[in-house]
Amino acid sequence: xxxxxxxxxxxxxxxxxxxxxxxxxxxxxxxxxxxxxxxxxxxxxxxxxxxxxxxxxxxxxxxxxxxxxxxxxxxxxxxxxxxxxxxxxxxxxxxxxxxxxxxxxxxxxxxxxxxxxxxxxxxxxxxxxxxxxxxxxxxxxxxxxxxxxxxxxxxxxxxxx
Length: 161
Known about the structure:
Elements: H1 11-14, E1 21-28, E2 31-40, E3 43-48, E4 53-56, E5 62-67, E6 70-75, E7 78-86, E8 91-96, H2 100-122, E9 126-132, H3 138-148
Antiparallel strand pairs: 1-2, 1-9, 2-3, 3-4, 4-5, 5-6, 6-7, 7-8
């Protein structure tokens, strides 16, 4: 039987490897979005709801993403796009052919989202929905990370370190 991919339920509660973490409501493109930002050491993960999701390493480089149902990982400074292909026995990840235009479009959209988040935080245009641990430092860490990382750089590897 094919494996079923379940929906993420409560990342603020369940993403314990991301400490500290904060759940924000921000307005993006005219609609409210719940965004979870969490740190594992100096590495940042951003969850714009269930999709898109971006993971960065300690150097601020993109290492993994999940966008429009597609997995994306860094490999030797380039992006590799993967698609889940379920069958009766298992789910297989298949590499998708991409061109530089598709990669540029993906990176441009990600940068636009990061810029909107930076603007919302600097303009205090957000609502904190939750934080773990409570009274933590996730929001100041996120603001500092966004200020320090203006351009998107692709990591050499999808690993955290």
